[in-house]
């Protein structure tokens, strides 16, 4: 039987963690700012259930750092309304800087933005709703308020999305790219291209999309004003989208401009079967409908003649 000769010198126990982050004294509860606000909410909700008068103060976790405690002294507390719903207190500190005293209030940087009462988790709920459906900011705020029993405004949801959307999309893209790498998905060289006209704030935009015909992976997706959309822009979009990847064939609808553009890219042009059938049925449908109406009319006449 072998034994582990390398024994750990320090062991962090759960009890040590609790003693470090949560300090209880009668009805006073001191909670470190490294713990999530959701935990604080649970303590308050439990206290309300048991009708306890609980006073919660959020303190800076660096209090246990000798250098911090030597330079920063506690200097009272300030009230803070977590998610504009739960009242807690934040510890303030006094420190000397350039021959005069300054003051600092405990921050919850990991979970709450400065000068804000709502947690990032709640404020960014609207971003997740956008993945499911296109709904207004007012509707998003109503859903959030209903789920969390709070009163977040439409403006807060709007500002958060405006500020956080680029980073949110970037992080999602990075996560998807890692998944694609794990699955070893590579461009096949056969791509579907199409455009879609969209009205945004009474303005017409064009959405250009290139999708891998085999893997269904989106190669590129771009939204531009209709006034910028022309034959040259299509060529630019396709050239930039396929740069550095395998390119064999581009599949499009029957627009006559595509063939010339794709030939410039040294690729094959293939007509989409769906669009071919759609174009065929567009021409056939009026004829078929006319024939069906004539059949119904003749059927009624025959039925009347046969009736005694």
Secondary structure elements and pairings:
Blueprint: H1 14-21, E1 22-25, E2 28-32, H2 37-49, E3 55-59, H3 66-71, E4 73-82, E5 86-97, E6 100-105, H4 120-123, H5 125-132, H6 137-148, H7 154-183, E7 190-200, E8 203-212, E9 218-225, H8 231-241, E10 249-252, H9 257-264, E11 268-271, H10 273-306
Parallel strand pairs: 2-3, 3-5, 7-10, 10-11
Antiparallel strand pairs: 1-2, 4-5, 5-6, 7-8, 8-9
Shape, please? elongated
Rg calc:
32 Å
The biggest beta sheet reads: 6 strands, mixed
Structural class category: alpha/beta
- Total beta strand runs: 11
- Helices, by number, come to 10
Count of structural domains: 3
SSE run: HEEHEHEEEHHHHEEEHEHEH
Strand content: 25-35%
Q: Give the quaternary arrangement of the chains.
A: single chain
Identify low-pLDDT runs: 6-12
**Euclidean distance between termini CA atoms:** 105 Å
The percent range for helix content is: 40-55%
Average residue-wise pLDDT: 86
Walkthrough of the structure:
It is a single chain. By secondary structure, the chain is of the alpha/beta class. The protein has three domains: 100 residues, no CATH class; 63 residues, no CATH class; 86 residues, 2-Layer Sandwich (Nucleotidyltransferase, domain 5). 44% of the residues lie in helices and 26% in strands. The protein has ten helices and eleven strands. Strands 1, 2, 3, 4, 5 and 6 form a six-stranded mixed β-sheet that branches. A five-stranded mixed β-sheet has the order 9-8-7-10-11. Helix 6 packs across helix 7 and helix 8 packs across helix 9. The chain is elongated.
